[in-house]
Amino acid sequence: METRANYVLIGAFTLAVIAAAFGFVLWFQSLHTTKLRSPIRIVFEGPASGLRNGGSVNFNGIRIGEVVSVKLDNPRRVVALAMVENNAPIRKDTLVGLEFQGLTGVAAISLKGGEENAAAVPLDDDGVPMLTADPSALQDVTESIRATLQNVNRIVADNQESVKNSLRNLETFTAALARNSEKIDNVLLRVDGVMGKADSLMLGLNTIAGGAAGGELNLMVKSIRELAEDFDKRSGALMADGRRTLADISRAVNNFDRNPSRVIFGGSNNAAPPPEATASTPPRGANAAVPPRAPSGQKKQ
Questions:
Q1: Angle at alpha carbon of residue 257, lines to 252 and 261, rounded to 5°
Q2: How far apart are alpha carbons 293 and 273 in whole angstroms?
Q3: Is the pTM above the cut of 0.70?
C-alpha cells in the first residue's frame, strides 16, 4: 500500500510541474505580446463590407496587426478594435480605409501616410486610441467594386452571342456524347483489349529476354556469338592458306620468268648453259693451234 501511495504522489507532482511549466510559457507569451502590441479603435461612418475578426491591419501595405472585434455602434456606424504594433508610425492625420485581396477577398484595414511630426492618435473615453475612417476612401473602394462589376457586366453583355454559341456548342457536344455512348463504350472496350494484348506482348518479351522460360533470347545471342567466333577462326585459317597459295603462285611465276624451258620441258639442275655462255667460251686447245696475229703495221721478227 505504501509503495502504491508513493507512486501516486510522484505522478501528481510530475503533472503539477508540467502544468506549471505550460502556464508560465503562456503567461510569458501573453505578457510579451501585450508589451509589443497595443489596442486601437477604428470607426467607420458607413458600411465596412468584408471586415471580420482576424482581418489584417496594414500600414502602407505592411501588416502591423489584426482585427480582434467588429461591432455596430449604431445603424450607420461600425467600430473595429485592433491590436497593432507599438512601433507603428500611426499619427493623428493617418488615413484609414479598407483594402481587398481580390474581388471577393476578406477586407483589411488600410492605414496610409501621416506626417512624422504630427500629433499622436487621440484617445477615446476609455483611453484607447481612436481613428475615424475617411469616408472618401470608403467611397473610393465602393466605387471601385461597382466599376469592376460594371466592367464584368459589360464584358458579358458585349459577348452575349459568343457565350450563347459556346453554351449551344457545349450542349451539342454533350448530346453527341449521349447518342454515341454505346460506341464510346465499345471503343473503350477495344482500348482495354489492346492494352491487354500489349501486356501479353510485354510478358512474352520478358520471357524471351530471360524470364521464367529460361532466357531464349540469351541462348540465341550466345549461339550467334559462338558462330561468329567459329567463323572468325575458319576465316583466319582460310586467309593463311590463301597467303601460302599466293606465295607458291608467285614463286612459280618467277621460275617461269627465269627459265621457261625448264618449266615447259622439265630437266635437271645440270643442264647446258645458255648459248651466250657457249659462244663466249673458246674451245679447248684453240689458243695453241692459232697463233696470235700481229697488229697491222708491224714487221715480223
A1: 90
A2: 30
A3: no
Confidence of residue 81 (pLDDT cuts 50, 70, 90): very high
Concatenate the DSSP letters of all residues of the chain into one string. Answer: -HHHHHHHHHHHHHHHHHHHHHHHHHHHHHHHHHHHEEEEEEEESS--TT--TT-EEEETTEEEEEEEEEEEEETTEEEEEEEEETTS---TT-EEEEEESSSSSPEEEEEE---TTSPPPPB-TTS-BEEE--HHHHHHHHHHHHHHHHHHHHHHHHTHHHHHHHHHHHHHHHHHHHHTHHHHHHHHHHHHHHHHHHHHHHHHHHHHHHSTT--HHHHHHHHHHHHHHHHHHHHHHHHHHHHHHHHHHHHHHHHHHH-HHHHHH---TTPPPPHHHHHHSPPTTHHHHSPPPPPTT----
Q: What are phi and psi of 62, to 5 degrees?
A: -105, 130
The pLDDT of residue 68 is: 92
The identity of residue 230, as a single letter, is D
Three cell numbers, residue 102: 481580390
Q: Cell 608467285 identifies what position?
A: 250
| Residue the block writes with cell 614463286 | 251
- Over the stretch 89-143, which tens digit does the pLDDT of each residue have? 888 888 888 887 655 567 888 888 888 888 888 898 888 999 988 776 665 565 6
Parallel/antiparallel/unpaired status of strands 56-59 and 62-74: antiparallel
Per residue in 218-267, pLDDT (tens digit) is 777 778 888 888 887 887 777 888 888 888 888 877 877 777 766 566 65
Dihedral of the alpha carbons of 11, 12, 16, 22, in degrees to the nearest 10: 50
